[in-house]
């Protein structure tokens, strides 16, 4: 299975007697249960933490003048420079932007890392997957530049586009703008090469749709090639996103590190999570120049909220990535081994990790955490 995809260049190794000040955002839905289980396991490694617990999302927006991402949360992360968070619900059609996307954009956490690794005992179609997907976090269709159908500004934009390009957009359209810049592309592709080097990986694959979107994905592909020419110690190739999706399903072993613009990265990382057993075990990290934020790939699964049922593995593995980032490599390895051991045993695991999802011997979130704690060396 090669190298550990969760390693990241962090500050130099520090003795574990140092207390790490970390912002902890429990989130909502299943978030608080997962955050509590993860906090307990992180502390059981012996590493000392000084948690700054901060709340964000719909539940706290009334206390902050309707703002679901209070400035206190951002200030805390600016100070601690490291955060771990549970998922936060984005109410559909509420007009409020995703707190998760806003956090990444406001703090300029431009590089998202989503490892997909096979763990023994997890039901999946493949056994030896070990991929790292790197997603640009700040632009593309996620930039949040949208014009609503029927608005005067939208009609004006449609008219301007017709004048500038000679192309007609139907008058009853909504518009989402897809900016892809040289600056952000250069930064994310260089980040991918740096990650590949640190993780001892051999190849970076840039994913795009340059054959159709020549001025956005075309620019991305051109700049990726330029950055690759400055990083010749690592192999480089590119794939068109639709072909990439098929190839990942047919022969995931051909790929290593992938670097994608925001939207393709979001879609393909769920695909990769599916290759290794699903969202319940898929961790993630968002890195910027000044801060890093660790969070599971999955959302707040409202239907399981408060039931002590959800699988804490994805958030715990995000915690393992955080330990690597903090320089606590020994604790990171011990924590990952304990998680992997409990999953491989298959006894003290949540329902989704059982061979049969209706297995009555499935345990709850907190009991799985207890089993992992008992197993930490
Ligand atoms: P989801 O990830 O919450 O759920 C998708 C499916 O996976 C559901 O069947 C769910 O029950 C299951 N699932 C997810 N995590 C699980 C876990 N730990 N254990 C067991 N089963 C799990 O996705 P969704 O339903 O599309 O989104 C729900 C909410 O979460 C939405 O408001 C969405 O905006 C938000 N969301 C937040 C984040 C984030 O905080 N970074 C990411 C994705 C979605």
Number of strand elements: 12
Shape: globular
What ligands can be seen in this structure? nicotinamide-adenine-dinucleotide
Structural classification: alpha/beta
Can you tell me the residue ranges where pLDDT is under 50 for at least 5 consecutive residues? 1-10
Q: Please report the number of helical segments.
A: 11
Largest sheet: 10 strands, mixed
What is the spatial order of strands in the main beta sheet? Answer: 2-1-3-12-11-4-5-10-8-9
Features:
single chain, 377 residues, alpha/beta, 10-stranded mixed sheet, two-stranded antiparallel sheet, 11 helices, 12 strands, disordered N terminus, binds nicotinamide-adenine-dinucleotide
SSE arrangement:
Elements lengths: L18 E7 L5 H14 L3 E6 L17 H10 L1 E4 L13 H8 L4 E7 L12 E7 L9 E2 L4 H14 L9 E2 L5 H17 L4 E6 L8 H13 L5 E6 H10 L6 E4 L1 H14 L7 E5 L4 E5 L16 H13 L3 H17 L19 H11 L2
Parallel strand pairs: 1-2, 1-3, 3-12, 5-10, 8-9, 8-10
Antiparallel strand pairs: 4-5, 4-11, 6-7, 11-12
The chain binds nicotinamide-adenine-dinucleotide (NAD).
Structural features, described:
The chain is an alpha/beta fold. It contains 11 helices and 12 strands. The strands form 2 sheets. It has a 10-stranded mixed β-sheet, sandwiched between helices. Helix 1 (31-44) links the parallel strand 1 and strand 2 (48-53). Helix 1 (31-44) packs across helix 9, helix 7 runs parallel beside helix 8 and helix 10 (329-345) crosses helix 11. The structure holds nicotinamide-adenine-dinucleotide (NAD). Residues 30, 87-90, 100, 279-280, 295, 298-301, 303-304, 310-311, 314, 352 line the site of nicotinamide-adenine-dinucleotide.
């Amino acid at each position: 299975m090669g190298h550990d995809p969760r390693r990241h260049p962090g500050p130099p190794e520090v003795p574990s007697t140092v207390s790490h000040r970390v912002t902890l955002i429990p989130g909502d839905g299943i978030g608080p249960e997962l955050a509590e289980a993860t906090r307990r396991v992180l502390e059981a490694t012996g590493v000392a933490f000084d948690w700054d617990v901060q709340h964000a999302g719909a539940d706290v927006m009334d206390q902050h003048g309707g703002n679901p991402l209070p400035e206190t949360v951002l200030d805390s992360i600016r100070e601690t420079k490291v955060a771990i968070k549970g998922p936060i619900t984005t109410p559909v059609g509420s007009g409020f932007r995703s707190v998760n996307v806003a956090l990444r954009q406001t703090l300029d956490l431009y590089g998202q890392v989503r490892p997909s690794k096979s763990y023994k005992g997890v039901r999946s179609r493949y056994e030896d997957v070990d991929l790292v997907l790197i997603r640009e976090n700040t632009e593309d269709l996620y930039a949040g530049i949208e014009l609503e159908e029927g608005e005067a500004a939208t009609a004006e934009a449609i008219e301007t586009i017709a004048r500038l390009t000679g192309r007609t957009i139907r008058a009853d359209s909504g518009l989402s703008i897809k900016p892809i810049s040289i600056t952000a592309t250069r930064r994310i592709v260089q980040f991918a090469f740096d990650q590949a080097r640190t993780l001892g990986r051999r190849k970076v694959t840039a994913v795009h749709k340059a054959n159709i979107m020549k001025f956005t994905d075309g620019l991305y592909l051109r700049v990726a090639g330029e950055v690759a020419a400055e990083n010749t110690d690592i192999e480089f190739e590119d794939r068109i996103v639709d072909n990439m999706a098929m190839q990942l399903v047919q022969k995931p072993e051909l790929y290593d590190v992938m670097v994608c613009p925001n939207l393709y990265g979001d879609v393909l990382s769920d695909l990769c999570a599916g290759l290794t057993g699903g969202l319940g075990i898929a961790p993630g990290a968002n890195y910027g120049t000044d801060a890093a934020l660790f969070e599971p790939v999955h959302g707040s699964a409202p239907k399981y909220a408060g039931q002590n049922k959800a699988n804490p593995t994805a958030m715990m593995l995000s915690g393992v990535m955080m330990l690597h980032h903090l320089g606590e490599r020994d604790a990171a390895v011990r924590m990952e081994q304990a998680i992997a051991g409990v999953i491989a045993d298959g006894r003290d695991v949540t329902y989704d990790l059982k061979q049969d999802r209706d297995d009555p011997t499935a345990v709850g979130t907190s009991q799985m955490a207890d089993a992992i704690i008992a197993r930490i060396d």
